[in-house]
Amino acid sequence: xxxxxxxxxxxxxxxxxxxxxxxxxxxxxxxxxxxxxxxxxxxxxxxxxxxxxxxxxxxxxxxxxxxxxxxxxxxxxxxxxxxxxxxxxxxxxxxxxxxxxxxxxxxxxxxxxxxxxxxxxxxxxxxxxxxxxxxxxxxxxxxxxxxxxxxxxxxxxxxxxxxxxxxxxxxxxxxxxxxxxxxxxxxxxxxxxxxxxxxxxxxxxxxxxxxxxxxxxxxxxxxxxxxxxxxxxxxxxxxxxxxxxxxxxxxxxxxxxxxxxxxxxxxxxxxxxxxxxxxxxxxxxxxxxxx
Length: 291
What we know:
Layout: H1 2-17, E1 21-29, H2 31-34, H3 38-44, H4 46-58, E2 63-72, H5 82-92, E3 98-101, H6 104-107, H7 111-124, E4 128-131, E5 136-137, H8 149-177, E6 190-193, E7 196-202, H9 204-219, H10 224-233, H11 239-246, H12 265-273, H13 275-278, H14 286-289
Parallel strand pairs: 1-2, 1-3, 3-4
Antiparallel strand pairs: 4-5, 6-7
Helix pairs in contact: 7-8, 10-12
């Protein structure tokens, strides 16, 4: 009986040793990482991470890449990232059983959440987790996820994100006080000055549409639906269509599910309620002051 047990134990160990892993390569780069200098940006770039992860896989014949998941421009303090959520779906339905990242900070910079994924979520779904540069491998070296170094590094990553966020917020507040524009896309009716991205200039095509909207609403008394009909009948693109097609911007409005770029009452309401326009279009009538 003892010999039989030893035989089966040996077979199980052999099976585990030769297991083929369906791998998810996870890459994350946040705006904060881009702001930490040229050397840091290069080392953390998406291309650099992808190269490192693929080289690691090539060195291990038991790893087969199922897919690569990239969240470019997403903070590590929040796990509600599109590609990471897609990774979790593939994990839950069994498409992957191994997650590989460059280091712990790429998984996230939230001390509590990162610890929860490593200690609770991944083990629950029998996921092998590897953080290459931090020498973490939950399968080959299970104790590597439980050492004091892992929570310590996660805590440092969390504090780094907090410190960086404070510095960026202070910088942005300083820019706002100077009257500089700090958004990704200007309000409809404005474009960024080509030589100074923090300065806005009037986009006459769109500005003329905004003037029409306020004129029709304030002086002609047209409602939002009637204004939509007029704009659509004239073939005028809505703000999303104007930014994408007329200005050639890489702009997406996830509330729009087709490419017709027609006007809707909610779009008109947003323009009428926007203080950027209201202070320019006050006509002395009560309804124009609080649109």
